[in-house]
Amino acid sequence: MSAIAAEQPRDARAAAARGALRAVLFVAGLAVLWGLWEGYRWIGLRERWTWPFTVSNVNMPHIHKILAAYNQPLQPGGPPLRHYLYHNAIFTAKEALAGFALGAIVGFFLAVVLAHSTILRRGLVPYIVASQTVPLLAIAPMVVVGLGTKGVTPWVSVAVIAAYLTFFPVAINTLRGLHAVDPRALELMRSYAAGRWKILWRLRVPASLPFVFSALKISATASVIGAIIGETPASLEGGLGYAIVNFNQYYTIQPANLWATIIVCALLGIFLFIAVSVVELLVLKRAPEHVA
Amino acid sequence: MPAVAIKGVSKSFRAGVTALTGIDLEVEPREFVSLIGPSGCGKSTLLRIIGDLINPSAGSVSVNGKSAEQARRDHDYGIVFQDAVLYDWRTVAKNISLPLELLRWSRTRRSARVDEMLELVELSGFGSHYPWQLSGGMQQRVSIARALSFSPSLLLMDEPFGALDEMTRERLNAELLRIWQETGSTIVFVTHSIPEAVFLSTRVVVMSPRPGRIASIVEIDLPQPRTTATREEPRFFELVTEVRERLAAGGALRGETQEPALAEEAS
Fold it and tell me: In this complex, is the C-beta atom of A5 within 8 Å of any C-beta atom belonging to chain B?
């Protein structure tokens, strides 16, 4: 006991050192990306590269120009771009979060149902897989219009589209996790005469959580993609998808605006990913090697 | 009324392998009976049949005068496996109280019992630790505490100390005897180790393989309580030799290395 207690300050210091190293690596990573971008740009312009694309100020604006775009007004005298993007990011985040939550819940309970029925599993899993091969871009307008006629608010329809993308990894991974139980742990539950329901909640679900969280991390970033793709063909105003379509049209004049939007999309995905990781750390108090 | 009564039990697996044949055995209350034999002799299978974790192909098993199934439903036995099989998302205390939760014990009653059990297995102060913070021997003690937490009259143990080093194993042997004395439970214990079986048991059931059957039963008349000194008594060595000879007579020590493909009996 005392041996374990004595190790804790050292663990805390080691954790702090690991955190610092991570921060340094992150900054170093940004610096390398910046260097690669600017380096490629510089050589491409000098050597007049045309393959795979012509390097120019339009195709590859300076990083500092992209960053500067955040402070420039969208319309003369209007608020700076960052205000516009902030509001659009909030709008898209709302759709993504709702889609993420809906997809996670649907995926989880679908997996629970499938885990208990071999017939359903054999019958349904091929269709679940097939559902992901349907081009989202094609069905997105149908969903928005279709649900719209039922009186569903457009952003909710977009959340449904995001959920369509996010339920899949959760369902597949949870199903895997629910089956990845030590057979002796099942014998133990049987020795206690525990029924299916108790085995599910006391054993299968907790045992599957590492799998569930791996899936949620995938879904977190996928939900942002789903929301953006859902907005685009539906021409839903107010989100990052709309901003991307909009800035695409003015790309040759103001390329930095599109790049600035892309960075915001990426940040939103990263933010959701980190949020899931933090929840995972809080929920999964298990051996360090068991946390993916 | 015997604690366990086995009559004419046989078990064949789908692959056509006969794991057990014609098993008759009675275990009296408060007995400590070891099942010993080479792998493939069906000793783990027999333990699981007693616990109603698998069904026999023929014959009957009764536990405390009830069918094995009813005894399982009545929580008449606790089971300990070779690995501790602790839930790594639960603390030591929460692992021990798992069966109590399933039995709908109140929170206060549970925590009182958990403290008692931690004391019994000499792990007081480790309740809030997670399993992965403990050594293998400590984990196995938690597993024993969990099996005994709801005071079952019967304890089934499937090579519980097989994965531990010799020193830890001998210490836990002594501890198990103390627990057995204190709780007054009946123990059916599966092992590979002859000295372990002799040291712990009141009777050693020698099994032989292909097909699994009871070759003979050796009464262990070593006095109680047994201590480390017991392991040095001449009578101890005589009994170890006797069990070894019975195993040999049963064909266990013929030097056969080929094992039947008993996939179902992976223990």
Answer: no
